[in-house]
From TrEMBL:
Database matches in Gene3D superfamilies: 3.40.630.30, N-acetyl transferase-like (3.30.60.60), Winged helix-like DNA-binding domain superfamily/Winged helix DNA-binding domain (1.10.10.10)
Stretches the record annotates as Disordered: 226-252, 276-304, 334-360
Family designation: Belongs to the MYST (SAS/MOZ) family.
The protein's name in its UniProt record: histone acetyltransferase
Ranges annotated as biased composition (Basic residues): 239-249
Keyword hit for Transcription regulation: yes
GO function terms (MF aspect): histone H4K16 acetyltransferase activity; zinc ion binding
Organism, scientific name: Aspergillus tanneri
């Protein structure tokens, strides 16, 4: 199983067998050791040329140039488009249908992921490509991807995620994370609540913690916004008496409730709430009050939290969190049934033998 790794900062490369990579017209430094076949990529390769459409690789500039002129994916990525909004789209690629493509993508990703372990056994994974289409000439650029097991016993909605180094620090990782949660949300009718594969890397933990915090903040702020909308008329009639102190609104809620509403695991909800610093400990009297309103089968004390919504609002303002989710519901092109039967028809170049670069 692939280790999860969300990277947003380059690390000091150690023992790299490939020093630099050319992706399309971009040249940048690699971060980690990869496992390209030694008979095709030597242990001391200064520059590796990688096709920006299909990730085929070559150490020879002429071979690389010839391939880019005839690449089967010049006009469109493989697979099916599942999301499209604001110039950004996400394409689902089945590792079984496009085995060579998935293998080459995984080998390229290893140059920037420390713990990625799946390279050739890709048939049990789905890959979701983040694509930007240039409105000037309709050309497309693959900015990153995440992978997901077709069948995860731990209900993981993501196995590995990477935004390619030239495109980092643009909030694109959050877009892919949001898509992964949307996809797992469609699976919740069979009882699945998703989360990334763990353990997370150091950078992965930081990235996901921020994503979870913003996700919870949006959920609570939307609740507050809807509640305020229904109470506006009654509040106009009831004015606070002079000298009365305005009380900060708060709500007793369980982390399980937040998890069910946001599609997050309980442990991830707890991590986010602690990071936000918006939780107050519950007193015995407040626990009893909550249990009385919830009935005899009230929530466990360990899952009960008190959240002051004013603190959440302050946190959201301090961190510039918009109420609108970066992943727009109208951008999805249809629900994906994880167990639906799909006709797997490899593209012409997927039928070629071998795992190496483009053969002339």
């Amino acid at each position: 199983m692939a280790s999860n790794d969300t990277l947003s900062h380059a690390k000091s490369p150690v023992n790299r067998n490939v020093k630099h990579v050319v992706l399309g017209d971009l040249l940048f430094q690699t971060w980690y050791q990869s496992i390209y076949p030694e008979d095709l990529v030597s242990k001391d390769t200064n520059r590796l040329y990688v096709c920006r459409w299909c990730f085929r690789y070559s150490c020879d500039t002429n071979s690389y140039a010839r391939h880019t002129q005839v690449c089967h994916h010049r006009t469109t990525p493989p697979g099916a488009k599942v999301y499209d909004h604001g110039g950004y789209s996400v394409w689902e690629v089945d590792g079984e249908c496009h085995k060579l493509y998935a293998q080459n993508l995984s080998l390229f990703a290893k140059l920037f992921l420390d713990h990625k372990s799946v390279f050739f056994d890709v048939v049990s994974f789905l890959y979701y490509l983040l694509v930007f289409t240039d409105p000037k000439d309709s050309s497309y650029h693959i900015l990153g991807f995440f992978s997901k097991e077709k069948l995860s016993w731990d209900a993981n909605n993501l196995a590995c995620i990477l935004i390619f180094p030239p495109y980092q620090h643009k909030q694109l990782g959050k877009l892919l994370m949001g898509v992964s949660y949307k996809l797992s949300g469609w699976e919740r009718d069979i009882g699945l609540i998703g989360g990334p594969e763990k353990p997370l890397s150091e950078m992965g933990s930081k990235s996901y913690s921020r994503f979870w915090e913003e996700r919870i903040a949006r959920y609570i702020l939307r609740q507050e916004s809807e509640a305020m909308g229904t109470k506006d008329s009654s509040q106009q009639k009831q004015k606070n008496p002079k000298g009365a102190r305005k009380r900060h609104p708060h709500e007793i809620i369980t982390v399980q409730d937040i998890g069910l509403a946001t599609g997050m695991l309980t442990e991830d909800v707890i991590t986010a709430l602690k990071g936000m610093g918006v939780v107050e400990p519950t007193t015995p009297s407040k626990r009893r009050k909550s249990q009385q309103t919830s009935g005899e089968n009230g929530p466990d004390d360990s899952e009960m939290v008190i959240i002051h919504k004013s603190n959440v609002l302050d946190w959201a303002k301090a961190h510039n969190v918009a109420l609108q989710d970066p992943v727009r519901a109208e951008g999805f092109l249809g629900k994906l049934a994880p167990n639906s039967s799909k006709e797997c028809t490899p593209s012409p170049n997927e039928k070629e033998d071998g795992d190496g670069p483009d053969d002339e």
